[in-house]
Amino acid sequence: MKVEVEADKCIASGQCVLLSDAVFDQREDDGIVVLRVNDVPSSEEDAVRSAERICPARAIRLTTSGG
Amino acid sequence: MRAVVVVGAGAAGLTAVETLREHGFDGRLTLIGAEPHAPYDRPPLSKQVLLGSWEPDRLALRPPGSYTELGLDTRFGRQATGLDLPGRRVRLDDGTAVAFDALVIATGVRPRRLPGAEGVCYLRTVEDAVVLRERLRSARRTVVVGAGFLGVEIAAAARSLGSTVTVVDPLPSPMIRQFGPALGELVRAAGEERGVEFRMGVGVTTADAGLVRLDDGTTLAADVVVAAVGAEPATEWLAGSGLDLRGGVRCDAFCRAADGVYVAGDVAANPDPATGTHRRFEHRMNATEQGRRAALNLLGHDEPFAPSRFFWTDAGDIRIQAAGTFADGELTVVDGSVADGKFVAAHAAGGRVTGILGWNNPRGFTRARGRLGAPAGEGKSTEGKVLT
After folding, report:
1. How far apart, in whole angstroms, are the C-alpha atoms of residue B41 and residue B63?
2. The complex's ipTM?
3. Over the stretch B106-153, which tens digit does the pLDDT of each residue have?
């Protein structure tokens, strides 16, 4: 499973980081989301699905492509 | 259960229908919304949309095809006018009725009107935002009544668009209800720095024909008057239904207002164990969280609703984020400093951290949220300035 984020939508809520700090982080200056990894480790898949759902800016998108 | 009706097509209603489908409900699912649009996001209305950096089409919460994919019977532009609880039917303004086995009420709020006012703008819908944006673009003098989140955001936008701006509120400081006086004074100082004038501690008696009369006898001339003086739950359609409508639609800890009837979002009056009464959470995050919880409980996954109480406001270039509650306690800076314009503060009451607040410090705010619920004294000797 892969994950993408749209930084220009992000409102720096940090909800994703609370769910998975292995996958998501925030820029120090403005809190905008940054990905630590693009390929989601299987142990983090549920957390990343929750993050996609809960993101108040809907800035997280999951893709299942294997590429 | 064959039919579920969700009344209210905002973030809470949308999350409810999505959760129902995601968790296997394959019966008839109807989403009713009074506005003519598919669900859209409201927080950007008072920010990006007012400033003109986003066009309204960016607000859609889902692509148009999503509603077909979800197998929804959508009734956008249709107002619910009544609830027949024993007959399990919602009546609509076109004279039809929709039958349900279970119901989710997510009708939200509408702006409280300013008494004694004519020609005043309000901001709730996308249409409101577009009208206000056009008016602010040509306004020379704007008066904003109300210094809560929305009023301060509107004032910041109006100032950015070139208008002089005065904010009027009978309370002593901006955002005082949310955060108390010390943080309110920081909000005021930040606003004043960019040229917003605050007239605090004074109410509005009348507003019409471009003249706002204050209760201290003075008047303010304005091309545009905007009122942001709170909101009222949209429950008129539920009158006589038998539901408890004191302060919203009252529900229990499971978001349940009656057998098979659930409530979510701004309209829901949730039990508050801390005070023994009920309260509404008018926060974007709550709409999503409660929409989901209400839908899950409707399907029998019974769990009490545990809101994260996360909310935010962008007051011009100041981003304030908060989680928890901020009443009757002490706010202490725990990271960064007020002087640097970037800090995190912890609110403590009853010996526990009840709230975490970030001021232009989103990453610090996220890191500090783990302190919620912790004993208040922890690490205090190394910590900074008490704000309240």
Report:
1. 13
2. 0.90
3. 999 999 999 989 999 999 999 999 999 999 999 999 999 999 999 999
Say how far apart CA B316 and CA B195 lie, in whole Å: 11
Partner residue opposite B362 with nearest CB, options A12, A53, A56: A12
A28 at interface of B, judged by CB pairs closer than 8 A: yes
Any CB–CB contact under 8 A between A31 and chain B? yes
Which among B136, B145, B119 has a CA at the least distance from the CA of B50? B136
Token couple for B301: 């996954």
Q: Which helix (H) or strand (E) element contains residue B288?
A: helix B284-298
Write down the pLDDT at residue A67. 43
Pick the closest to residue A11 from B7, B41, B188 (CA basis). Answer: B41
What is the torsion angle, in degrees rounded to the nearest 10, for the CA atoms of residue B7, residue B11, residue B12 and residue B16? 80
CA B320 to chain centre: 15
Q: What is the pLDDT of residues B243-258, one digit of tens each?
A: 999 999 999 999 999 9
- State which residue of chain B sits closest to A13, comparing Cα positions: B362
Model confidence at B379, pLDDT cuts 50, 70, 90, reads low
Can you tell me the distance from the alpha carbon of B15 to that of B289, in angstroms, rounded to the nearest whole number? 8
Lowest-confidence pick of A53-67, B8-22, B117-131: A53-67
* Mean pLDDT (whole number) for B169-179: 96
A62 touches chain B (CB under 8 A): no
Contact A14 B369 (CB under 8 A): yes
B248 contact partners, CB below 8 Å, separation of at least 6: B233, B235, B263, B266, B267, B268, B269, B278, B280
Quick one: pLDDT band at residue B378, thresholds 50, 70, 90?
Answer: low
Length of chain A as a residue count: 67
Question: Which residues on chain B are in Cβ contact (under 8 Å) with A28?
Answer: 363
Q: Do B312 and A13 touch (CB under 8 A)?
A: yes
**Residue in A14, A53, A58 closest to B61 by CB:** A58
Chain B neighbors of A30, CB-CB under 8 A: 362
Tell me which of B121-125, B228-232, B325-329 is least confident: B325-329
Position B207 scores a pLDDT of 95
CA dist B371 to B49, B193, B289, Å?
A: 35, 32, 21
Mutation target to probe the A interface, by most A beta carbons within 10 A, among B366, B367, B371, B372 is: B366
Q: Do B369 and A18 touch (CB under 8 A)?
A: yes
Element (H, E) at B278: strand B277-279
